Amino acid sequence: MEFLNSFSFWEEFWAIFVVIIIAWFIHDKYVQRKHQLLVNYPIIGRLRYLFEEVREPFRQYFGDEKFYESKDKLDWVYKAARDLPNYASFSPSQPLPKPKFMIRHSNIVLNDNEIEEKFEVVFGENRKKPFYVKSIIARSAMSDGSISPEGTRAFVQGAYLGKFPINSGEGGVTSNFFTTHLNYDSSYMKIVDSSSLNKVVKSLAKFFFNGALAADVYRKLVFKGDLEAETYMLDVQKKQFYRPNWDAPLENFPKEVPSDMPDIVFQISSGLYGARDKQGNFDADRYQKVMTFCKMTEIKIAQGAKQTGGKLAGHKVTPAVAYYRNVEAYKDVFSPNRFPYGNSIEELFDFIGKLQKLSDKPVGMKIVISDLENIEPYAKEIKRRIEEKNDAYPDFITIDGGSGGSATAPLEMMERVGLEIRDAVYLVDKVLNKYAIRDKIKIIASGKILTPDDIIIVMSLGADFVQIARGFMMSAGCIRARYCSGTTGRECPVGLATQDKSKRRKYFVFKHANYVANYHKNLLKNVKGLLAIMGLKNISQLNRHRLLFIDKDSRVYDNIDEVFKRKLKIGKDLEDHYHEFR
Question: Where does the sequence pass through the membrane (predicted)?
Answer without folding.
Answer: 6-26
